[in-house]
Structures are given as C-alpha cells and as structure tokens.
Amino acid sequence: xxxxxxxxxxxxxxxxxxxxxxxxxxxxxxxxxxxxxxxxxxxxxxxxxxxxxxxxxxxxxxxxxxxxxxxxxxxxxxxxxxxxxxxxxxxxxxxxxxxxxxxxxxxxxxxxxxxxxxxxxxxxxxxxxxxxxxxxxxxxxxxxxxxxxxxxxxxxxxxxxxxxxxxxxxxxxxxxxxxxxxxxxxxxxxxxxxxxxxxxxxxxxxxxxxxxxxxxxxxxxxxxxxxxxxxxxxxxxxxxxxxxxxxxxxxxxxxxxxxxxxxxxxxxxxxxxxxxxxxxxxxxxxxxxxxxxxxxx
Length: 297
Fold this sequence. Notes:
Blueprint: H1 10-16, H2 21-75, E1 85-88, E2 94-97, E3 100-103, E4 112-117, E5 122-124, E6 136-137, E7 149-153, E8 158-162, E9 165-167, E10 172-174, E11 204-207, E12 209-216, E13 224-229, E14 235-239, E15 243-250, E16 255-256, E17 265-278, E18 281-289
Parallel strand pairs: 1-8
Antiparallel strand pairs: 1-2, 3-4, 4-12, 5-11, 6-10, 7-8, 7-11, 9-10, 12-13, 13-14, 15-16, 15-17, 17-18
C-alpha cells in the first residue's frame, strides 16, 4: 500500500506566518494613542498641581504682608490716639500728621497707607518746655538717637520734631532747627497749635515709627508689596502680588477707600490681591485681607 502524506492543517499554516504589516500598524497606532492619552493626563495633572502650588505660594506671601500691616495698624497712634499731631513734613512744610494716612488715587490704581505709632522708646520731660526752641530735658534719653522722629504730647495737643543729638549725662534731647522737621521759625504761634503755656513737666515724649506700605511694579520682576520705614531701606513685605486696596470703616458704619475725615476712621482693612493669569485658562483671582481697629482709637 502506498502512503500519501497528509496536507498541513490550516491552523498550522496561520500560526507559522506571524503578524502582518497592517496588524503591526494598527497595534502601533493604538499604543501611540494610549501613551498620548496617558501623557496628556499626566501633564494636565502636573500643570494643575503647579497651578495650585502657585496659588498657595501667592496666598502665603500675601498673608505675610497682611500680618505685617496688621501688627502696625493695631499700634497706630499709640501714645496719642486720635489727637492730630502738628509738625513739618519732609519738605519743611507745616502739616498735620495722622496715625493712619490713606493714599488713594482712583478705583483702578493701587492704594498706599502711612502708619505712625510709638512702639519704640518713651520718656517724660522733667523741665517745662515753654516754646518749640527749648530742648527736651527728660527723665531718660535711653533709646533716643539722632534723626529719630519724636512726638511730645500733654494729652490735649501733640507736636512732632526730629532729634538732632542727645546727651546722656544731662539727659537732654536736642532738636536743632536746621532739620526740615524742626521749623526754623518755631511752632509757637496760635496757627501752629503750640500750647499757650508750652508743654509742662510730665508731658510725654515718644520715639515714633513711620512706615508706608505700597505696591512696587518696577523694581522687581513681579509686583511686590513694599514696607518702607522712615530712615530705613525699603523691604519686600509680599512678593508676586496683584495689588493693594485699603478700605476704611468710618464711625457711621460705611466703608470707603478714600476717607475725607481721618478722625472718623474706625477700622482699617488692607486687602492684598493675588492673581494667576494664563492665556489658556481662566484667571484665578484671590485676596487676603483683615480688618483691624487700632488699640488707641
């Protein structure tokens, strides 16, 4: 009997020929699509995470700036409260110095604020001061230095002068009229509100701190909230912020950014604005704020 070889099974033929070109192309396309989707989701998540990180960093920076302002607003006017303080400004012009001085231009422009408070040295005068040319004879000159701004008050009126020298052996504080803050003609006439009988023994003298807060949009790569203390270099209170608005609650309960009567201010509310702008996404605007009534008000 003659044996005839059996024909290979069809399934064996299909198994032996491998993947076709079309199958490989389809597989590669599917893998590319899956990897692309995974990478898109990854970068989107990473971008959102970075966005949230930026929000948190800006908010924390703004909180730091608001905390600095809060501390000084709380102490504004300490030592003389709402009393108007009479003296000269940095140009030698007679003016009224307030514990809180708003800086408002228009609704679309950043605000500023100047805060004055006595959280440094203090003492009392031991000899009468009949006129503004008299030196301060005090109980203790410790803590007072040349160029310091000081306020003398008897509880009814107050004046600001600048220290030009001190003498610890005689406990004397001098305020030479050569300083623009010390009026060369004196402050003794009625228009300058000097007490009729001068300042008597026991009148208080405070070393004051005068600091201003404002937005600087040019000195740094990004806008910064600046604290600038008199006779000191400016310092960054908050970096990468979007603006500063300062609101004031008046004694009648209303709020305004531009108070006309500084004696009517009850509370101060600084608002530090933040924003993240991306042309591909909606702007994330936020703010950090507080509302404080100075202890002396």
